[in-house]
Design brief:
This protein is an alpha+beta fold. It has a single domain, classed as Roll (Nuclear Transport Factor 2, Chain: A), CATH 3.10.450.40. Helices cover 31% and strands 24% of the residues. It contains three helices and four strands; from the N terminus they run αααββββ. The protein has a four-stranded antiparallel beta sheet with strand order 1-2-3-4.
């Protein structure tokens, strides 16, 4: 059950006996996606006990051109995921160009579940104009 966060474990006590058939890896993946949504939508410096938790303001990356800004965003996402989501390993972040949707920044997050080395993780994400990050599973390539 350690694939879930503490609050998710407490919440699951309410639903004991009503649980949907779900593998350990599926529970863990659902928990990771939920946590990444929260993590990537948290402003860096807004958490008293961990000033580096969260993302810098992605609407004001100064200097350089668009490619340098995209690289900074990739690096910021990778840094926070590597530090605060230990259930993922071999994490890679890649910005995707989407000519049909120029107002949002799209990126892929790939890796493997740390406890299930053979289970790859593929997530599609986007940063919207206001800085909000959305995350979803990429196709059917995930547990």
């Amino acid at each position: 059950m350690y694939e879930l966060t503490l609050l998710e474990r407490i919440e699951s006590l309410e639903f004991e006996g009503k649980e949907i058939e779900e593998t350990s890896a599926q529970k863990e993946m659902r928990s990771i996606i939920t946590y990444l949504r929260k993590l990537l939508n948290t402003n860096k410096g807004s958490v008293e006990i961990a000033q580096d938790l969260g993302m810098p303001d992605m609407t004001v990356f100064a200097g350089g051109g668009i490619s340098e800004t995209m690289q900074k965003i990739e690096e910021a996402i990778l840094e926070v995921v590597l530090k605060y989501e230990r259930r993922l390993s071999q994490v890679k972040v890649k910005i995707d160009s989407n000519e049909d949707d120029v107002l949002n920044i799209h990126f892929r997050l790939e890796g493997v579940l740390a406890r299930h080395e053979n289970l790859p993780v593929f997530l599609e994400s986007s940063v919207q104009p206001g800085g909000k990050v959305k995350i979803k599973r990429q196709g059917n390539r995930i547990v």
